[in-house]
Amino acid sequence: MTIHDLTTANRLMIADFLESLDDDAWHRETLCPGWTTHHMAAHFVQPMVLGFGRFLLTSLRYRGDTDRTVDHHTRRLARRPRAELIGLLREHAADRSDPPRVGPMGPFAETCVHLRDIARPLGLPADVPAAHWRILLDYLTGPDPAPALVAPGRLTGMRFVATDVDWQAGEGALVTGPIEAIGMAITGRAAALADLTGDWQAASR
Q: Which residues lie below 8 Å from residue 176, measured CB to CB, with a gap of 6+?
């Protein structure tokens, strides 16, 4: 299966997961500051319903700040009912997107990480298959990951070993834990650090 195929499968799984959540869960904060589950559902469909030209015009308003542009459109889309957002996610699950610099790995990474951004605060086990985390982490710990996913130099001097599957990467101070927690920590989710062993702060210096 291609990365596009895996992304499609993950989007359909996420749509089912979102549909299973109650009202309280839809209003709960995710690991993305300021975003609830409803915001995250809107974010998942943003690249599918928003043309590049419109996104570019909005980015000019925010002086090229991609994060603020994404937040602007996410909040606008979050005005739509959750049933509509879930329907759009299913309808466009197979849409292909190759953003500049990160390519198809960007949308794939979002399905892996943002699902856990929702599920972790809710205490729910919903997750992508471990094989998807292997693919993503091979990219994130590789020679040229996109800066939008991993800050340059963030992983220097660190060796990661998953404790639940056969995966390891890097050289240096040892950090171990479930592959999901490693992936979440690598992408900047401090909430995952408690699930890891090894001094992340010391290793990352």
A: 160, 161, 162, 163, 196, 197, 198
CA atoms in the 13 A half-sphere facing the CB of 126: 26
pTM above 0.85, yes or no: yes
Q: Cα(17)–Cα(31) distance, rounded to whole angstroms? A: 17
Cβ-proximal residues to 184 (8 Å cutoff; 6+ apart), any chain: 31, 113, 116, 120, 191, 192
Residue 176 per-residue DSSP state: E
The predicted-structure confidence for 7-24, as pLDDT tens digits, reads as follows: 999 999 999 999 999 999
Domain segments of the chain as ranges: 3-128, 147-203
Identify any residues that bridge with 29 across adjacent strands, giving them in sequence order. Answer: 36
Contact 165, 179 (CB under 8 A): yes
Q: Which residues contact 61 (CB under 8 A, 6 or more apart)?
A: 69, 72
